[in-house]
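Our collaborator T.R. sent over the components below with a one-line note: 'Predict the complex.' Nothing else. No constraints on interfaces, no templates requested, no preferences about which chain binds where. So this is a plain run: every listed entity goes in together, and whatever single assembly comes back becomes the starting point for the next discussion.
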Amino acid sequence: MKTSVRLSLVASAALALTFAMAAPHARADDPGITPTSIKIGMIGSLTGPAAAWGWPTINGARMVYDAVNAQGGINGRKIELVVEDEQCAPPMALAAAKKLIHRDKVFMLHGGSCSGSILATRDEVLANEVPMMILVATMDKIVQEKPNDYIYRAFLPGSFDGKIIADFIATMPNVKRVVVVGHADEHAGARYGTLTEGLKKHGVELLGLETIETELTDATAQVLKIKDAKPDAVVLVGRPAASAVFLKDAHRLGLDVPMIGATVVDLQDLADRIGGTDALKNMYVVAVYKGPLGSEAMTPWQEMLKKYYPSDKVQASSFLGTSGALAVVEGLKKAGPDLTRAKFVEAMNGIQNLDGGPMACSLSFSAADHDGCRTGVMWGVRDGKIVVIGDRWKN
Amino acid sequence: MEIATLLSVGLSNGCLYGLVGLGLVLVYSSQGIPNFAHGELFMAGAFLAYTAIVLLGLPYFLSFLIAVVGIGLMGMLLEWLAIRPISLHRSLGRASSEVAIVLATVGLAIVLKGLARIPWGDSVRNLPTAFTTQTVTIGGVAIATQRLLIVAVTLVLTVAISVFFARAPLGKKMRATAQNPTGAKLIGIHTSNIYSATWALAAACGAIAGVLAAPLIFLHPDMGTRMLLKGFAAACLGGFGSVTGVLLGGVLMGVVEIFAGRYIATSMMDIFAPIIIILVLLFWPQGLFGARRAARV
Amino acid sequence: MLDITGLRAGYGAHEVLKGLSMRVGKGQVVALLGGNGAGKTTTLSAIMGLIPSQGGEIAFESNSIQGQPAHRVFRHGLSLVPQWRELFTDMSVQEHLELGAIACASRGDLDARVASALDYFPELRAHLGRRAGTLSGGQQQMVAIARALTARPKLLMLDEPSMGLAPLVVRELGRTIKRLNEAGTSVLLVEQNMHLALGVASYVYVIRAGKIITHGPTGDFHDEKELFHSYIG
Ligand SMILES: Nc1ncnc2c1ncn2[C@@H]1O[C@H](COP(=O)(O)OP(=O)(O)OP(=O)(O)O)[C@@H](O)[C@H]1O
Ligand SMILES: [Mg+2]
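Returned assembly:
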């Protein structure tokens, strides 16, 4: 009796050890997969301060999964979604990630509308080796910080704005001196580094940084100051409301040099705020989409949204999460019928030049770089209409 | 030229600060408390005007009137619902009931802002300006017509309110109640009603400021927060006691702010209000333009 | 005209008046005498409705005024000149006189009301534009009484009007009270200055610890010292 107890103890300990050692490498059946389904957990700001971004961006990604399911799924498996609310608050985001990973046992995550809160889930996601696609959070380090073997992003991260603007300015003839106008917050700060670096590289002189408050009500002082400096162009890194105030006052006070705006603003939205495109004649904005809403490039995506979520308003933020879902679907297909998390990660790292759908960039991932989308495109106003300029001045 | 442009903007901004400050001063001098919900009355005024103009398609000046009267009534209702029960609560001493009322106004601010988020959410809204002509050029300086309207309305309102306090029976009752509530009760004044009327007047002033400011700053449930700070600074400069004092305080704020932004640093502009509040409260508690503070027992 | 029976009132849990009864007849000047903290001011405050009463009955001209707030009591024709005067420091003398009648239904004769109030205090004529806060103590007392007079009260209640005044001014005050009474105003005078009180009142109540301990026509109290000791205890 005694011996047999000891024996069985040793046996089970050995067994446990074998499992423990084997587990991280070749788990035969990863969670969230059955022969007919793949469970994906989505996290978004459904309530709270960024609620305006919640459902629109989630549904813009979900419609891709819906469309895939409608065609029979991937290798016979349909995608099953569980949606959790992060309320744009770090503890809520972490709680949502833990629930999805441990309780719902999802195969992977697709989520994050607020950079600050989704950053809080990073350690939990990496420690559990759960693949994750970022929904719409722009902060660089969520994806770019090392080590990161599991977290991917398929749209333009914040800092790339700066580089795109600098490259665009370099193609403008006679623009040698620029002033930057922007907020003193983290959101704008993410763009300044690559912007100054890029301008320096192209030999463009940076005359100074004018701060504007996010709740700016009047920009007379800033505009007059900038006029004094006589720049050839102005870079505007402001949130929509403040940018609109600045542009209105610049127009009124006759500051008529070209202005280049970051992705923070959207030309159509600015025109709505200002009431017309008069003040925007000289404005260029980095855009992430292939074209404005209603343009040919966007029509299939707008129709897809209408088909699956007919009550959703078609708006600029609707398709920010779409490219992420497209990349996930591609990764799942390439990973083959014997799906595991490891195989999925390997497949993701192999994606090259995948069409970004509504996004202006094509998606390429590698084991070293999980930020798949690195280019945007310039939009401007021509004859009162918003048009795609490309990535060169007057293209 | 540049000076004139800066002045025109500084002056009109200052008038707005003064108008917001005026509402604060009215409640403060009658009840001795800063009304932290005043910024939300400002916001509510702007949204009510938006509803009338944009959603119902009513003419501008009629909508303006609806907003002012509507928010005036709302101020009265708030006083009746949230403030009066506290001040009539006999078990509280005067000091603790004042603290309770201040906290009640903070609570009101949060509730009103939260309620505004339900219908209005976070999307973009513009309140149209009063005139279709956006700017006029005076002596080579392009000035927004909305800014001229702001200055004109503020001046007229300041004169009207000064006359109201000096001549109208209700104005006199308000002053008497502000200076000595017991004395006022003894001459037959229903002081509770005077407080309601004061809230109504203060709220109406807030609504006027909101409707005037909205075309410049866009509509948003949070739009009152920053304005409250500016109005508070104006009221501090004005010594929290006189109608003309708070207007002068506001104008000084607006002008100094924009010149400092232009010639020192634009990043300074928004920290100006809190600095003024602290400095004035520390060194000139009577305010710079406060001829005399209403005596409170 | 004023009948109080078994009045109980105080501040929160602290009961000051413990069943006080007294009456003021029409056309009378009645004095209420008592030491510090006896409850004189509390009595007037309870009558006027500045503080609630916990029991008993207050009737004015046979109507109950108990539990009514001050602005309602005022409308029955009662005016109180409070111990601390309660003036509007930043307002002028003229404004005080006008404000006195601001809650009266018939204000068409405002000028007449102000003029007749000034007849009692001609000295104020020279100071009509001055702010009340800048006047001397005696003048402030005049403003406080004159403010109450413009309302033309049926019963005027004075709470220690002699407090802080020079003897000469007190004597003048006594004459004024008599004139007022002759003109038809009933007066309830609260005093610690016995000389003034006995000089003008026809009936005297003495209050101690919230109760009337003795009362009677002024003639019964010829010995001021004895009276004084009765309420000092
Ligand atoms: N507001 C108050 N709160 C609490 N207790 C009070 C208040 N006012 C007066 N008292 C108390 O009530 C009692 C009676 O006060 P009251 O003022 O009626 O006396 P009084 O006879 O008018 O005295 P005095 O001659 O000093 O004016 C005193 O013990 C006093 O301390
Ligand atoms: Mg007393």
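Summary for T.R.: Residues 138 and 169 of chain C are 7 Å apart (CA to CA).
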